[in-house]
Design a protein that fits this description.
single chain; alpha+beta
Length: about 70
C-alpha cells in the first residue's frame, strides 16, 4: 500500500530575490518538486533534507546564489 506524501508551498525572499517552492515529505525525507527564483525554474536534482528547517535554509541559499543546483 503506497504511503501518503505531504506537500507544502514555501515562499520568501533572500538577499533581494524571491523564491517559491513545493516541498514534499515522504518517508521522513523532504525533497523539492518545484523551485522558482525570481520567476525562473531552477532544477534541484539532489535536494533532499531531513528537516523542514534544513530545506528552507537550502532554498534561501539557492535564492541568494550561495548554493548551486
Amino acid at each position: 500500500m503506497p504511503t501518503e506524501t505531504e506537500q507544502e508551498n514555501v515562499f520568501g525572499t533572500a538577499d533581494g530575490s524571491t523564491y517559491s517552492a513545493v516541498l514534499s515529505n515522504a518517508g521522513g525525507r523532504l525533497t523539492v518538486h518545484s523551485l522558482l527564483i525570481d520567476g525562473h525554474n531552477v532544477p534541484v536534482p539532489h535536494g533532499e533534507w531531513t528537516t523542514r528547517e534544513e530545506a528552507v535554509k537550502a532554498l534561501q541559499d539557492y535564492a541568494k546564489g550561495d548554493r548551486q543546483p
